[in-house]
Amino acid sequence: MCMRSFECRDDMDLEALESSHSPAPDNLYEREGCTNRYLPTQGHPEKAELLSPEVKRSQPLLIQSRKWGRLRDEELRPSSLPDIPNPFPELCDSSPILSNTPSGRSPKEGGPHMVKVYSEDGACRSLEVTAGATARNVCDMLVERVHCLSDESWSLIELHPHLGLERCLEDHESVVEVQAMWPAGGDSSFIFRKNFAKYELFRGSPYALFPEDMVGGNLEAQKGLSHSELVQNFLNSGSWPEIQGYLHMKESGRKVWKRFYFFLRRSGLYYSAKGTSKDPRHLQYFADVNESNSYCLTQGKKLYNAPTEFGFCLKPLKMRSGTKGLKILCTEDEQARTCWLTAIRLFKYGAQLYKNYQISRRSPQSWTEPTKQRSASDSTMVPMDFSGCTGRVIENPLEALSVALEEAQSWRKKTTHRYSLPTPCQTTPNSAAIHKTQAWYHGRLSRDETQRLIMQQGMADGVFLVRESTRNAKGFVLSLCHLQKIKHYLILPSEEEGRPYFSMDDGQTKFIDLIQLVEFHQINRGILPCTLKHYCTSVAL
């Protein structure tokens, strides 16, 4: 059959056919990298005969208009191979059928690429970016377009609902390359929101982030150093302490979970087949963190039958879809999960994380942002007493608390003129609703929704929001994150001499409205375990 088809083509007038061929771009079958090459088989003279000079001229040739010129075959394929067109061009790597990028273009190629980004409320905005656009570049673009304040906490979240996975993209990651790895026609997406825990390692205490029982080796020699010196020492040396602890591991292909003692080292993630033994004979290799991305499980119990809700997984970089290659793990609490995920980021990216943090702090501010002033909640500030001729530092915590309470009382008296409050009837229209204009106020939000929102925006100390109480019709609730736990404080309204006020401590500290209450606790801790630092917010794209 092959010889008969080639002989029929001998009678074709190629020159006549070429002259009648209409000008058109390159043949669709002739894509770079898509050439199907066949080699003659040893011991089969009828196949080897195809490569003889007499038969080569009858093989299919690329026919092009004179306007476009002739292709130089030697640039596309070796001259020793026949010019047989690929009968299955849709199976090529550059095919638009298999590629998730427009027109099958490689993510590394130049030219614009379209990226869709969603907000918390489901609104979508399409951005045209270059192939080298990073997650920080896209965040800066969105900050400018929606006219919100710029800071290092704005992030792009990669979401895979069908797998129940999500992760925060690192600022240096290429958005186009990440999007190119998604399965075609899937429900994967980017979410634009804040993540206050992204750089908490460089702002808070590493001893709070990494409990002593999870850190291999002794850090006593480092305890005399300041936080910045400790972090800088680790970054300069390039060696991070070994992280160890118990994790629940899901067996591949089964819904069975087993508990093992894991070790995170530079060479990879291991677990011990015999208790907590570090003997190389007992250590089993689990995953290479450098060749994987780490994700949080959003529906661990529902999709993977996880023993707790604090699950995470390692997804190989080359894995597009399915769950077969996922390395799924589970911790006992949020603090342990945060420790493991942070350690994996450090082992994978090292000093690049600190470089991202420095660049994000130097990012151009939005045109709507006022001149940046020193934060009143800066950890370097100390309580002062200015009642005498000269100021003095208050070292006694009890004395500092009493001074803070006195300041709250005087603050309330000084600011009563702000709303002109001689009678209760005059206070109702203004003070009762002014808090609804604040970004930290979230209205009728349930307790579960509150915890989900705070967890999404990062379990960092001082993340908070204010909402209406679901149990007390006239009350409010201040929800605050501290030490990887979310606590809720009831705010009750009351009256004194006909004037309303709000309090969280049975009237010991009184505030004329919720705004004053929040502003006070952004400076003073009061009855809270820490000051209010970051309020949960969302923007509409």
TrEMBL record:
Pfam family of the protein (one): BPS
Keyword Cytoplasm: yes
Gene3D superfamilies tied to this protein: Phosphatidylinositol 3-kinase Catalytic Subunit, Chain A, domain 1, Pleckstrin-homology domain (PH domain)/Phosphotyrosine-binding domain (PTB), SH2 domain
Chief subcellular location: cytoplasm
Domain SH2, chain residue ranges per copy: 440-536
Similarity comment: Belongs to the GRB7/10/14 family.
UniProt-recorded name of the protein: Growth factor receptor-bound protein 7
Annotated source species: Hymenochirus boettgeri (Congo dwarf clawed frog)
